[in-house]
Write a sequence for this structure.
């Protein structure tokens, strides 16, 4: 990470979560309580907060006992009730929850259940009123919430991360969020290079101002609440220098200092 370009990311969250990956995997395995197949199949599918659509598709295929790629192929013909801005892409609207599965459940039916659940939550009055108050659409609010979900180190940080996004948008500054780069590159990492920030993608928020064209994952209710009610503040930068230690500032020089501390922590961790 070059020191002259501070990363406006959660920084360190993936380190914190690295040890939890196995726990999540176990939770998902337990959630996919699918029986021996056929019409007697029963169980549930857990969709964690922040999962990308690609992860939801893969878990759905496994839960339903169908060939990989089947759920994703069902998207165009499932008749999903998505906002026009989504252009048929359900990313952001596969709402995190636990969904029941039985022998009659189909990929299209499961996707419909998820999207309908999202619409129930995102169509609530406080969401639409919050979006209007922030001068964005509900869909753009979901986009912001998805970035908040990916970037915030803790639920307590979500409101501040949301405020950074709104502050940078208001000032015409690029968001410079590594989480959007990771989405474009289909990865999750803390190691972002200068070359990564130059990739040609509408999700490259270093090169392109404004929000990415779609959500970058499926946010939960806490992230949506932060997106409609950002914490008051003038922050323009943040960096998680260590797990549980995210620092927000409106000073570029202070951000550089914090980034250097993050880099030092990373070097110490590697050694």
């Amino acid at each position: 990470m070059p020191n002259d370009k501070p990363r406006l990311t959660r920084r360190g969250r993936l380190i914190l979560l690295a040890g939890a990956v196995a726990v999540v995997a176990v939770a998902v395995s337990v959630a996919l309580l699918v029986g021996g197949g056929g019409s007697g199949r029963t169980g549930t599918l857990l969709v964690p907060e922040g999962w990308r659509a690609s992860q939801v598709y893969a878990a759905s295929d496994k839960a339903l006992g169908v060939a990989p790629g089947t759920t994703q192929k069902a998207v165009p013909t499932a008749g999903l009730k998505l906002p026009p801005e989504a252009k048929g892409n359900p990313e952001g609207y596969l709402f995190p929850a636990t969904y029941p599965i039985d022998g009659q459940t189909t990929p299209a039916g499961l996707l419909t259940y998820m999207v309908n659940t999202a619409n129930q939550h995102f169509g609530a009055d406080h969401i639409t009123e919050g979006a209007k108050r922030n001068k964005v659409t509900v869909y753009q609010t979901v986009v912001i919430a998805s970035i908040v979900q990916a970037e915030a180190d803790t639920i307590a940080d979500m409101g501040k991360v949301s405020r950074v996004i709104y502050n940078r948008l208001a000032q015409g500054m690029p968001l410079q969020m590594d989480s959007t780069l990771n989405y474009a590159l289909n990865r999750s990492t803390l190691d972002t290079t200068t070359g990564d920030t130059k990739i040609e993608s509408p999700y490259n928020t270093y090169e392109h101002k404004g929000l990415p064209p779609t959500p970058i994952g499926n946010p939960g209710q806490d992230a949506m609440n932060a997106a409609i009610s950002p914490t008051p503040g003038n922050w323009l930068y943040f960096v998680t220098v260590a797990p549980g230690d995210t620092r927000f500032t409106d000073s570029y020089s202070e951000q550089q200092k914090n980034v250097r501390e993050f880099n030092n922590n990373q070097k110490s961790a590697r050694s």
Observations:
- Residues 13-17+135-270 form one domain.
- The radius of gyration is 19 Å.
- The chain has two domains: 13-17+135-270, 32-122.
